[in-house]
Amino acid sequence: MKRIGVLTSGGDAPGMNACIRAVVLTAAAYNLDVVGFHHGYNGLLDEDYQTLLPQHVQHIIQHGGTILKSARCKALYTDAGAVQAAQVLHKLQLDALVIIGGDGSFRGALAIAPHYHGQLIGVPGTIDNDVDGTDFTIGFATAIDTALDAIDKIRDTADAFERIFLVELMGRHSGYIALSAGIAAGAEQIICPEFGPVSKAQLTKLLAPIQHAQLLRGKSSYIMVVAENSYPGGTIALAEDLSAELGTECRACILGHIQRGGKPVGADRILATKLGAYAVEQLVNGAHLMMAGELNQQAVLYPLAQTGERTKQIDPYLVRWQQQIASD
Amino acid sequence: MKRIGVLTSGGDAPGMNACIRAVVLTAAAYNLDVVGFHHGYNGLLDEDYQTLLPQHVQHIIQHGGTILKSARCKALYTDAGAVQAAQVLHKLQLDALVIIGGDGSFRGALAIAPHYHGQLIGVPGTIDNDVDGTDFTIGFATAIDTALDAIDKIRDTADAFERIFLVELMGRHSGYIALSAGIAAGAEQIICPEFGPVSKAQLTKLLAPIQHAQLLRGKSSYIMVVAENSYPGGTIALAEDLSAELGTECRACILGHIQRGGKPVGADRILATKLGAYAVEQLVNGAHLMMAGELNQQAVLYPLAQTGERTKQIDPYLVRWQQQIASD
Amino acid sequence: MKRIGVLTSGGDAPGMNACIRAVVLTAAAYNLDVVGFHHGYNGLLDEDYQTLLPQHVQHIIQHGGTILKSARCKALYTDAGAVQAAQVLHKLQLDALVIIGGDGSFRGALAIAPHYHGQLIGVPGTIDNDVDGTDFTIGFATAIDTALDAIDKIRDTADAFERIFLVELMGRHSGYIALSAGIAAGAEQIICPEFGPVSKAQLTKLLAPIQHAQLLRGKSSYIMVVAENSYPGGTIALAEDLSAELGTECRACILGHIQRGGKPVGADRILATKLGAYAVEQLVNGAHLMMAGELNQQAVLYPLAQTGERTKQIDPYLVRWQQQIASD
Amino acid sequence: MKRIGVLTSGGDAPGMNACIRAVVLTAAAYNLDVVGFHHGYNGLLDEDYQTLLPQHVQHIIQHGGTILKSARCKALYTDAGAVQAAQVLHKLQLDALVIIGGDGSFRGALAIAPHYHGQLIGVPGTIDNDVDGTDFTIGFATAIDTALDAIDKIRDTADAFERIFLVELMGRHSGYIALSAGIAAGAEQIICPEFGPVSKAQLTKLLAPIQHAQLLRGKSSYIMVVAENSYPGGTIALAEDLSAELGTECRACILGHIQRGGKPVGADRILATKLGAYAVEQLVNGAHLMMAGELNQQAVLYPLAQTGERTKQIDPYLVRWQQQIASD
């Protein structure tokens, strides 16, 4: 092995830069050259890339975003696209490619594989923590703290005004961010896919805990953390419907894209460093079509084809506890 | 003077607690008793209050929100309400009342004044910085830094994806927050009331700078900071209309209530301390129907009745510079 | 079981309040009364305590420090002290006591046990992460991020001036904080007990990587993270000795007590909530002389007597990687 | 005017990058070329420089440190050095030079002036706020918030342990940082040059407020903010001497270099932008040997030769208030 490529793909996540750095520094330790593609797989198709030396990754560990840029790339998911990607990898004499992204991005690697003679390895980088084969994805810990910081601020106002606030967090179709940030914020109620769907007809089951909290506990504020895609019409509609039911104004805040950016927290920088280093080491050891993940604090390989299976579950202990406290 | 009251009214602002603390500590230095009303003027009408001793304000200087709670209070703006407020002040033997809030809250003081024998003084506490008679209001500096932190995070994603983002900031009918945060964030374009209205018909004047930036400067991301109430239908509508014109997706983020909360920054804690102390000192000196503000770093009194005159202007130098750079 | 006590002991750690909250809310769900002792075991000996209801723990989840105060308590470690502690527990009719602290604090529980008829359970709360039987202690994640934030700032100056800085971090006799923060900060070198002792005679082995970095990599700044107690005379002496050897000024920064305080990060709030809840549940299930810890994301019980055995090791993968990169 | 130079000199300050950016963008608006010298005046003497185009300053507004590096430069303060500096300026056909730094750095400009045919202008960039002719220097607001964040954290521990802490802040020979951060932190006592010297013989005057606070106010923690160079032997010696007098352990924390770095806060980015832009505009207008400062929110010119006169005073109102409260 002499020369490897690396790219970041899909939604950006804090820690992607730390991961690129670890790939480059570890590759240098193994005397491997590194090429970085720009804009995810688009840079691969367009031959838009740069050489990455250790000095190019100095002091990027603390920055959000990705120096290689990221993007989604529809063109890759055609036969022609996959063949072309493999051709570019061959042309640039790359023995392997490291893909930093979510399980959607890993499907791109699976599409390229039949046409490519080299090795492909994934590193889980997404704030959503919805990748099978790793306890945590790079970016998740930072997203929690960003959400938390926002909810803490909203708590100040909710408390000053004795108001009900709904805070919508990201997570696509999983509740990792909502549950984690909700528990950490001391949110009075958490709505996420894993707790079952909520429709307008079932609004009443959300009301009881609110009324209970206000009457019995004398709570001066009430915060509901809501995972995106949890209610028909979205969180603004949910706030309106709850307001109508309760006869009290409920305000909605949609955190949106601030959850993707920012300086990565320590946990994400360490995870990114560990997995980036491990990915390169395992390429040297012959790994192919695997993801470098971490389970129980151990770096492990996991088949890339199984990373999207959705068998990973959010902490059942915290789910149960939250429901016990909320219904109490 | 033996006994004074204090309340926080209107939208909460970081530094209100620091101001309450300064009022209480300064009052103690003058041997004055202090009573704090809850929920703004509502606590005054409802006789919902607490004694405030120095130990009650220990270590609140660093907290957002307000320990006295805040609220709006329609009842005060009837004759009956104003009379009742004055009666409660008399009944509790309060020689003066300190109102921490915006110019809307100060109108409450003007309503009470004809019926009250004591002194009334205001302290400007609102994130909007839209109060005449003071260079800065308590909470404004923190709101800027909160907005900035969010925009910096959005910049990471905008940059990684080479996208156009619109970020809506608060400010009711003034552009202080939008201009300040926009300049500080290095936003490529700022839309605020002071720069003139924007309607669908005038969209094209927003497009030229975008196209210019992308073509001439090779900018990898483009952020427009938008003051609330700047476009018919709101910032989401503006993003949609711009997307249609440009043929590129423009994303909107509405920062919302996170701008109101959070630990106050140093500038707000210092301003709140100075104005809270000054308000009490000036009450002792006989001030009535005045606001304790700061102009050119000097604590000054300003007639409460003139605080809402809207003659205060956002920094013309920065306005001009921003337009020069954007159009360049 | 009807009534339990809780106290925080030893060095304070961010998340202790979140843990107290979880103990109180979970106890309420089991209809248990809760009493909180002040100043660690001192409050137990002095009968200085308060009732803790759910409303007392509202909105403390986000605050550093501990509402129950903490302290060390020599008096407990005499026979008379241990007997007295047990007597107070009996007198107050407490069926169990929850001790939130480090392994030193758990020895207090072991001292009380022979004299007490109730149950004793520990929850690991210390920034040092040096407690056997749990992957992480409450406060560790926040301490890493606090250290990181400081090192990132020092990096700015080190970079602007092209200087060598030594940053001393806490950790008593373990290198968890130094290694984790050092890796996360991209520190060029990390000195901690687990990497072997450094004496004046061995200074030269620290010099080679510095000279290597400057010559080969063109590094503009160089940061060494140093665990406390790593060098005879301390980190200031190390900086002086290195300066003499290198003929270049090396500056030392001692982070000190800022590492103990601050708003807990999400990971600490979640861990504190989980372990506080689990401790109460396990008391109800009959646990005694155990610590509620977390191993591999699972809440587990671990014998209190073994929590100080020092068999826990810092991540060998990261240790090896750091040395590989530094020596490269 | 066709071509100008810019450099950052002396201790780095957050906002220097924002200022460089404003210089470059404003110069572009006037069709001026810009050259940036590295390492302060050293880069001028060594002809170590780079061209600065708008794309070179993209997204640096939010970063601490300085992309041009900074340094002190003894060589400039010899006749030969000053002559050589002027020669390089002439050789590179620079019509003017912008110096971002403190009054020490401005003396360098005064040394060059007799030998140089072009214009010299300064912009005040230092965390110390000790430059005459401007209300605030670039970096001061950020340094306050950094210090505040650290003191808030120390408060958590001080409170948990009911301890006395001394926190030493920077400021060379002025008390701006100590007074501002101390007021904002609600420090119980502030020691800075402007409050008069403290010697071992006068220790007792520091004790009375401590004892007063503990006895009368039931304060659970006590924080003294100490400006550097305030006590013979330093703040660690002061802590030891106070401990001996009080019979209670007083801990010292030296914040050190973390005060210099970090992401600039909004106020510093705005000030840096305004003064950088103004400096270039005034060069175009013919300014020479002036500093671009801000007084009463207005950008103004001030003679460079008078910037070190030390007539600027810290806010007398806050000084008086702090002493009144502390002695109360």
Brief summary of the model shown:
The structure is a homotetramer of 328-residue chains. With 328 residues, chain A is of the alpha/beta class. In chain A, 40% of the residues lie in helices and 18% in strands.
Keywords:
Rossmann fold; 7-stranded mixed beta sheet; 18% strand; 6-phosphofructokinase (chains A, B, C, D); metal-binding (chains A, B, C, D); alpha/beta; elongated; 4-stranded parallel beta sheet; 328 residues; 40% helix; homotetramer
Question: Helices and strands in order, then pairings?
Answer:
Four copies of one chain form a homotetramer.
Chain A: E1 3-8, H1 16-29, E2 33-37, H2 41-45, E3 49-51, H3 79-91, E4 96-101, H4 103-112, E5 119-124, H5 140-161, E6 164-169, H6 176-185, E7 189-191, H7 204-216, E8 222-227, H8 235-246, E9 250-254, H9 266-284, E10 290-295, E11 298-303, H10 316-327
Parallel strand pairs in A: 1-2, 1-4, 4-5, 5-10, 6-8, 6-9, 7-8
Antiparallel strand pairs in A: 2-3, 10-11
Helix pairs in contact in A: 1-9, 5-6
Explain this structure.
The structure is a homotetramer of 328-residue chains. Chain A is an alpha/beta fold. Chain A folds into two domains: 3-139 and 264-306, Rossmann fold; 142-260, Rossmann fold, CATH 3.40.50.460. The first copy, chain A, is 40% helix and 18% strand. Chain A is built from ten helices and eleven strands. The first copy, chain A, has helices spanning 16-29, 41-45, 79-91, 103-112, 140-161, 176-185, 204-216, 235-246, 266-284, 316-327, and strands at 3-8, 33-37, 49-51, 96-101, 119-124, 164-169, 189-191, 222-227, 250-254, 290-295, 298-303. In chain A, strands 3-2-1-4-5-10-11 form a seven-stranded mixed β-sheet, sandwiched between helices. In chain A, strands 7-8-6-9 form a four-stranded parallel β-sheet, with helices on both faces. In chain A, helix 7 links the parallel strand 7 (189-191) and strand 8 (222-227). The longest helix of chain A is centred in the middle third of the chain and has 22 residues, at 140-161. The radius of gyration of chain A is 22 Å and the shape is elongated. The model of chain A has no long low-confidence stretch (mean pLDDT 93). Chains in contact: A-B, A-C, B-D, C-D. At the A-C interface, helix 1, helix 5, helix 6, helix 9 and helix 10 of A face helix 1, helix 5, helix 6, helix 9 and helix 10 of C. Chains A, B, C, D: Its main location: cytoplasm.
